[in-house]
């Protein structure tokens, strides 16, 4: 069974007031404690578990981390074929979320530079995503610059990813997931909060 991903939009000031060893537990305790369902029976994408965090539900995935990892791998495969201005914006947006040019530099490996406990070993991560509040305005600018140009990725996706196991099933699946990352990143930046994904 693969990893799951529970993504939180969280107030770094609140988390920072807790001992490092208690921060993941505090988020875990809020998991699933959010708002009631919307009138149409769905949960809002970001439902607030507490005054200091919200859990984000990806609508295009089942809660597994696999689709995010596959999307990051797809970007890595197709990026050499993409126009430089789109590539630079996508790199800036995706770095630390679902892709890193140098996987060893993934901020989750160090617990976000020590903000969260580092993993005991690489096979059992403590956190999957760490993007502090100060990183998000730049990500939102990058997303805003590239969102209207996403269709330019279609040809590169077809050349490098379509039909390959371990990549998103379709270009539309890939774009839907990118749009959700754009949505949650924008929400977090608007609040001045950060993102943290737990397995």
Report, as a whole number of angstroms, the end-to-end distance: 12 Å
Sheet-strand content, in percent, reads: 5-15%
Question: Stretches where pLDDT falls below 50 for ≥5 residues?
Answer: 34-43
Please state the structural category: alpha+beta
Helix percentage: 40-55%
Q: How many E strands?
A: 5
Total helices: the number is: 8
What topology, given as strand order, has the largest sheet? 2-3-1-5-4
- The mean pLDDT is 89
Order of SSEs, N→C? EHHEEHHHEHHHE
Major β-sheet, in short? 5 strands, antiparallel
Q: Over all CA atoms, what is the radius of gyration?
A: 16 Å
Q: Which of globular, elongated, flat, extended, rod-shaped describes the shape? A: globular
Itemize the secondary structure elements and their pairings.
Elements: E1 6-10, H1 12-16, H2 23-30, E2 46-50, E3 53-56, H3 66-78, H4 84-94, H5 111-114, E4 129-131, H6 136-147, H7 154-160, H8 171-191, E5 194-198
Antiparallel strand pairs: 1-3, 1-5, 2-3, 4-5
How would you describe this structure to a colleague?
This protein is α+β, with helices and mostly antiparallel strands. Helix content is 41%, strand content 11%. The protein has eight helices and five strands. It has helices spanning 12-16, 23-30, 66-78, 84-94, 111-114, 136-147, 154-160, 171-191; strands at 6-10, 46-50, 53-56, 129-131, 194-198. The chain has a five-stranded antiparallel beta sheet, sandwiched between helices. Strand 2 and strand 3 (53-56) form a beta hairpin. It starts with 5 loop residues before the first strand and ends with a strand.
């Amino acid at each position: 069974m693969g990893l799951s991903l529970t993504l939180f939009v969280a107030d770094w000031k609140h988390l920072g007031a807790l001992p490092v060893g208690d921060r993941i537990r505090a988020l875990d305790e809020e998991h699933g404690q959010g708002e009631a369902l919307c009138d149409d029976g769905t949960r809002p994408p970001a439902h607030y578990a507490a005054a200091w965090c919200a859990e984000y539900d990806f609508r295009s995935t089942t809660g597994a981390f696999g689709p995010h990892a596959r999307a990051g791998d797809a970007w890595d495969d197709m990026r050499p074929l993409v126009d430089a201005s789109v590539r630079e914006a996508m790199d800036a947006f995706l770095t630390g979320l679902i892709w890193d040019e140098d996987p060893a530099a993934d901020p989750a490996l160090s617990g976000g530079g020590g903000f969260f406990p580092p993993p005991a070993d690489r096979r059992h991560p403590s956190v999957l995503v760490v993007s502090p509040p100060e990183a998000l305005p730049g990500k939102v600018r990058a997303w805003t610059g590239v969102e209207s140009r996403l269709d330019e990725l279609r040809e590169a996706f077809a050349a490098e990813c379509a039909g390959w196991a371990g990549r998103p099933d379709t270009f539309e699946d890939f774009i839907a997931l990118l749009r959700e990352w754009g949505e949650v990143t924008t929400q977090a930046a608007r609040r001045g909060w950060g993102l943290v994904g737990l397995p």
